[in-house]
Structure formats: structure tokens, C-alpha cells
Write a structure and sequence with these properties.
Blueprint (H helix, E strand, L loop, with lengths): L7 H33 L4 H10 L1 H18 L1 H19 L5 H15 L2 H12 L5 H29 L2 H22 L12 H6 L12 H36 L4 H33 L2 H20 L8 H16 L2 H11 L4 H30 L6 H14 L26
Length: 427
């Protein structure tokens, strides 16, 4: 197979790209399929919003746990078990018989996918050179946006051919295939890969021994500003992922095929943004050697441009203007991804799985709140543009908070007391 003749570092990165594609295909196919199961089960927009957000509750819990597990036991085992679980959850979604079983399947999907991105970051910490971290994170997340782009059109095609249930069966089988290949091509330590060359190894970080304990309190406080910024981004992300297919369907009275085309166009802008964001961030780092410019300043600028891009939605109701505004907003929002996901590796390279899990709790919390609140606003007002006010406000807050992230200030574990030295209790 030509795929297996690629350099091992390229194979690992491509496998992670495919994983990001599949996980987003599995989590956003529900947005398009909701036009089928929402009608079949007679669900309100608020109830559909609950289905969208159910995934995020266990996803939130397993961010930090999954990051710790991947740091302690390795990304290979973590992603194998996660993959089996999210594949099962996706298939079970197709067997749902109503609101309760839909919620149960989405909760199980959150358990399965909760550790995936922190585990992928832990894998990149060993398999990606420091100067390419922004590119690697941007590229993998670009594949997740390809999943967003493909999902509406693919699910509509499957629904027209068979029905909404079959779209989940097919996605589940694709996930199982990925698990089988990942178990064959990935090794925890690059030096133990049978095809790795010394030239490739020399460019990679030295794999350190796994630390026995994580200093949870200090690490959490160090990552708190990063987590808050990622919440501000995540609010917009989950608003887009949950409601953009329905936005064009209802706000402009398009049929489901045309609405899927418009939604795919918006999501494709995110693919470009993810890729460019990682490339530009790494280029700034190579030229300036300044992590703050490459990460924090770039995030601030892109969030500000996202805010400006969404403003026209508040003043006009025109399909072309809305499409351009949403596409530009998603493009600039996604340009933050490469630098944001590189920051945990910059700050805490020896426990970057845990650090990235802490950061991604921000997006997971937004995934709980954003779809439900947006659905409630739409039900209460009938206005499909009003939910974007929250995105505009939070992007402005994110601009201010981004200057507090300090990626150039590396996290150091608190020094353990020397053997035999007692620590006096505080009076």
C-alpha cells in the first residue's frame, strides 16, 4: 500500500487527520439528520437542541480524565478504546426510537470522543517537531471541518437514498475501519517504530518518561486563561455546527438539498481557515522566535475579525450577505485553532494531553450551553440571526482574555521535597 510507504511521521499525522474527520462526521451528522428524526419524533427546536448538546456532558467530563489517561497509558490504547466506543454509539443512534434513546446514544458518543483530541495532542507531542506544532494542529482540525463540510451533503444523500438511520450505520462502520488501521501503524515511542529513520528521529522531541503524578491545581490555574478563551471560541463553533444546516433551511425557506449546499460552503471556509492559521502561526514563530506573537496575538486578531464578520447579520436579512458573513466569521474563528491547540504543547510539553484536556473543557462547556440556549432563543423569537449576538459578544471578550494566555511562560512542576525533609504546617 502506498499509504504505508509514506514516512512514519506522515502516516501518523494522516491517521490523526482521518480521526478528526471521522469524529466530526460522527458528531455533526445529527444536525442534518435532525430534519428527519425531528419530524419523525415530533421534537421542538429546544428538544433538538438538547439532542445536540447531550453529547457534550460526558465530553466535558472526559476531557481532563482522557488527557490524563493518554499521558499515563499512551495515545495508542486510549484511541483504540475511544474509537470502539464512539463507533458503537454512532451505530446505536440509528436504532433510536425517540427522544430518550437519542439522548442516550449521544451521551455514549460523548464518552467515546471525550479523550480523542487530548490523546491526539499527546501523540503529536512525541511525533511532531516543535516548530511544526501549529501546522499539525491546524491541519488535523482542517480535516474535522472537512467532516463538517461533507456531513450535510452526505447525510442528505443517504437520507434520500435510504433514510436518516442509515447515515449513522455507515459512519459507525467507517469508525471501526479507522480503529483497525490505527492499531497497526502507531507506536507510542517513535524510536520503536520499525520503519523510522534516524533523520526523522533527530527532528522529533525526546520522549520523556511518563510522570507519576500531575500537579492538578497549579496546572489548572496555569491553563485557566487558555480555557476561557477556548470557551469564547467554542460558543461560536457549536452554534455553527448545531444550527447552520437548519439556519438556511428555515431562515430562507430553502429545501434540504440547497440548505446543505450553503451549509457545506460555510464549513469549507473553516477548512481553509484551520490550515492557514496553523501555517501562519508557525511562520511567525520561525521568523520572530516569539511565542506570544505567534499564538496569543494571532488569536486576538482572528477573534476580532470574527466579531466584525458576524456584525452584518444584525442589520440585514439577505441570503448572499448572510452566506458571506457566516463564511468569513467561520474562516477567522477557525484560524485560531492551530495556535490554540499548540499552546498546551508550548506550556506543558511533558503533560500536554492533560493540559489540552483542561483547555478543551472550555469548548465542551460551550457545547452544552450554546445549542440549547440558541434553540430556546429561536423557539421564543422565531429569529434565526439573534443567537449570533452571543458569538459577537464572546468573541470580543476572547480578544481581551487572549493576552493572558502567556504561551512563552512554560509550566514547571512544583519541586518535590527532598527525602527526609519535613514540611512544616502553616500556622
Amino acid at each position: 500500500m502506498k499509504f504505508l510507504r509514506l514516512r512514519p511521521t506522515s502516516v501518523v499525522l494522516l491517521m490523526l487527520c482521518f480521526m478528526y474527520f471521522i469524529t466530526y462526521l460522527d458528531r455533526v451528522n445529527v444536525s442534518t439528520a435532525s430534519s428527519g428524526f425531528g419530524k419523525e419524533f415530533n421534537l421542538s427546536k429546544t428538544e433538538i437542541g438538547l439532542v445536540f448538546s447531550a453529547f457534550a456532558y460526558p465530553y466535558l467530563v472526559f476531557q481532563i480524565i482522557g488527557g490524563w489517561v493518554s499521558d499515563k497509558f499512551g495515545a495508542r490504547k486510549t484511541l483504540i478504546w475511544c474509537g470502539l466506543l464512539w463507533a458503537l454509539a454512532t451505530i446505536l443512534t440509528g436504532f433510536a426510537g425517540g427522544l430518550v434513546s437519542l439522548l442516550a446514544a449521544r451521551l455514549l458518543l460523548g464518552f467515546g470522543e471525550g479523550a480523542t483530541f487530548p490523546a491526539a495532542t499527546a501523540a503529536m507531542g512525541s511525533w511532531v517537531a516543535k516548530e511544526n506544532r501549529g501546522f499539525a494542529q491546524g491541519l488535523t482540525h482542517a480535516f474535522s471541518r472537512i467532516g463538517n463540510t461533507v456531513a450535510p451533503a452526505a447525510v442528505v444523500a443517504i437520507m434520500a437514498w435510504h433514510g436518516w438511520r442509515e447515515s449513522f450505520y455507515i459512519c459507525g462502520v467507517i469508525s471501526l475501519v479507522w480503529v483497525a488501521i490505527w492499531s497497526r501503524v502507531f507506536t507510542e515511542d517513535p524510536a520503536k517504530h520499525p520503519r523510522i529513520t534516524q533523520q526523522e528521529l533527530s527532528a522529533l522531541p525526546v520522549v520523556k518518561k511518563k510522570q507519576a503524578a500531575v500537579p492538578w491545581g497549579p496546572l489548572f490555574m496555569r491553563m485557566l486563561p487558555v480555557t476561557l478563551v477556548y470557551f469564547c471560541y467554542g460558543w461560536t463553533l457549536w452554534l455553527f455546527l448545531s444550527w447552520i444546516p437548519q439556519y438556511f433551511l428555515h431562515s430562507y425557506d430553502l429545501d434540504i438539498k440547497k440548505s446543505a449546499v450553503f451549509a457545506s460552503g460555510v464549513f469549507f471556509a473553516g477548512v481553509v481557515g484551520d490550515t492557514l492559521g496553523g501555517i501562519i502561526s508557525d511562520r511567525i514563530l520561525k521568523r520572530s522566535g516569539n511565542l506570544k506573537k505567534a499564538r496569543s496575538y494571532m488569536v486576538a486578531i482572528c477573534m476580532f475579525l470574527t466579531m466584525l464578520s458576524l456584525l452584518p447579520l444584525m442589520f440585514t436579512h439577505d441570503r448572499l450577505v448572510s452566506t458571506l458573513s457566516l463564511s468569513a466569521g467561520f474562516f477567522f474563528a477557525e484560524m485560531t485553532i492551530g495556535p490554540m491547540w499548540a499552546i498546551p504543547m508550548d506550556i506543558a510539553p511533558d503533560c500536554c494531553g492533560t493540559a489540552s484536556g483542561i483547555m478543551n473543557t472550555g469548548s465542551a462547556m460551550a457545547a452544552i450551553l450554546s445549542p440549547v440556549i440558541s434553540g430556546y432563543v429561536i423557539d421564543a423569537t422565531g429569529n434565526w440571526e439573534l443567537p449570533f449576538v452571543g458569538s459577537i459578544v464572546l468573541m470580543g471578550i476572547g480578544v481581551l482574555l487572549s493576552f493572558r494566555m502567556q504561551p512563552d511562560n512554560k509550566f514547571h512542576r512544583p519541586a518535590a521535597p527532598a527525602p527526609g525533609v519535613a514540611i512544616e504546617p502553616q500556622a
